[in-house]
Amino acid sequence: MDPEAGIRRNHPKKESWRTVLTLAYQSLGVVYGDLSTSPLYVYKSTFAEDISHSETNEEIFGVLSFVFWTLTLVPLLKYVFIVLRADDNGEGGTFALYSLLCRHARINSLPNCQQADEELSEYKGEGVSLLPRTSFGARLKSSLEKHRFLQRSLLFLALIGTCMVIGDGVLTPAISVFSAVSGLELSMAKQHHKYVEVPAACIILIGLFALQHYGTHRVGFLFAPAVLTWLLCISSIGLYNIIHWNPHVYQALSPYYMFKFLKKTQKEGWMSLGGILLCITGSEAMFADLGHFSQLSIKVAFTFLVYPSLILAYMGQAAYLSMHHEVENDYRIGFYVSVPEKLRWPVLAIAILAAVVGSQAMITGTFSIIKQCSALDCFPRVKVVHTSSKFHGQIYIPEINWILMFLCLAVTIGFRDTKRMGNASGLAVITVMLVTTCLMSLVIVLCWHRNVLLAVAFVLLFGTIEAFYFSATLIKFLEGAWVPVALSFIFLLVMYIWHYGSLKKYEFDIQNKVSINWLLSLSPGLGILRVRGIGLIHTDLVTGIPGVFSHFVTNLPAFHQVLVFLCVKSVPVPHVGPEERFLVGRIGPRESRIYRCIIRYGYRDFHGDDMEFERELVCSITEFIRYDRIEPCSSTAMTAGSKDYGDLKVIGTCSTSTDTIQISENDGASLPSLPKKRVRFMVTEGHLDGDSMAELRELMEAREAGVAYILGHSYVRAKQGSGLVKQLAINAYDFLSRNCRAPTYASSMPHASTIEVGMVCHL
Description:
Layout: H1 17-30, H2 33-36, H3 42-46, H4 58-81, H5 94-104, H6 121-124, H7 136-146, H8 148-181, H9 190-210, H10 220-245, H11 256-265, H12 267-271, H13 273-276, H14 284-288, H15 295-322, H16 344-375, E1 385-386, E2 395-396, H17 398-415, H18 418-446, H19 452-474, H20 482-511, H21 516-521, E3 529-538, H22 547-555, E4 558-571, E5 582-586, E6 594-602, H23 610-630, E7 637-638, E8 648-651, E9 662-666, E10 678-682, H24 690-705, E11 707-717, H25 724-739, H26 744-747, E12 754-762
Parallel strand pairs: 3-4, 3-11, 4-6, 11-12
Antiparallel strand pairs: 1-2, 5-6, 5-8, 7-8, 9-10
């Protein structure tokens, strides 16, 4: 049921240096591939059109100064020393910040949240305390809880950041691979190299996406060495260029050269900042991929290896260019021109490999964030394939993979140069950073309980820098920057329609649920029969009886001897431990044999297969029967706020039980007349009374008779008299729901045991 539980990385508070260094080494291939390949295109994009390289070197030194301070302030100061601390139980990224804010401000991002969910160990987290009533944070928290507009604005902000990350997942492979193969331009005539670069980049991109289904773990051993080799390569070449061409280039690190640059170039210099911005592309990955590593390992890798290597690389390029002013073509100012001629072919090969690694990390990150959105009802359901049995974060989504490949090829063939690709990538990168800055300012006040002045200072410092770059990229809207805006608009529309439709569907289910008394009144006297077996009625409701069951009984007047109303839901935390997975309770008296079971997953958890699912479900009910009789006042009992008889109790999976009822199974292969699974309960004598043993015996017999899965299939329609916008949204939601994947638990069920009940929902 929870195979990732044993592999989930729970970082100890005190890590050994050996562990830290090992994780830091591994992070090179996963986190820093995109950031480390930025020297391939930063100078080339900056000097593409707006400014030129002159004899005074004021432009090249000014660009170097901007690059140095941008790398120092944004990735190093903002992300390494501040943002990495805002993790959601070890997870990072835009949705992790949003989830963190929702829990601290008590904003229910999911409609079926319960009070019991707030008792989860990861929901509480560390350092959660009440805000002083008179503080600004308390007033801000109260405003967020009261006003739906503010809640929707917060969700909208998180979705914008998420959509831009997806857009970056399209643009990063395109610009990284295209820039890497652009080294071919120095070995052939200008009129020929364009006919080679685009096909070569397209072939590499097709191969990259075609291999995604194998998973990153298949070639993972190559990732870290490739990036490490690349970093050592560019830093060595940079150091050589500094010593050989201009040892005094370090003077350009002074902020004075930035002002000198802007004073001379004015508007053109401001417009060229979009190219300089590309030096920090991939910085968000340090936070987004935090769940695979530890804070300290990411800090060590960036501070002591990645950051100095990038600074040396940019200084080396500037040193070379400061002594070479005969720039006849725009590509003569690129990365490869500063590489010694004898090393260009080996460096080209290393660059292509590093670009593939960086692209792979971005593609995997896109898969991960879409899975998170889907778990929180903000993206249509997609097929999620776990490509590694050891690392739960390595996933593959076929539909998204081919969409990304098509869009990457379209961008590469359509633009055919790094200038417009850089404009597009720059806008996507800076928008994500602006969203992170806004969400972080709320985290400082609501989650860290710091003075509001610190949040204001954070926004003023980093928000001003990012807004400055944002304005420079936005001015290039017609020169490529429209691509991430268009992609984000499409993805945002799909995500918002899905979220809106899901909420309306849940509201319909709430309004049309039937009372528990109606269920308990069903008896043979009314022509209702109880048949052998276990009936699992899947529902999104955590209280009451879903209308789909009423529809089922009306058309087929019978239901099973053991009835389980099953709700599989996601909660706004990264992971739910196996010991807290199930909430189990009764509906009605013991004799009715009707139960409610709620299975909770975090937005990064792995859903097990149907056989494991079925076994764990039966095990959880047996554990509930045991606790219900032995420990009726157990501290593990939690009220779920329903009107059912009795409380819902927290039940762990079989793997977490020690002194519990054990289930042993055999598939009956040696018994031709009985191909079904046999279930046997082993209970320590004296633990249970006669009623409980009879209940367990009946559950055992029902399991042997078979399990039937009853699913509701809804046909969504807009209500009569609805506005045009609502009709379009509901119709779009109906189209998406009919054409997207079924829920994970539904898609893995045996078809022979599944009953679908159709209903028309007027929303």
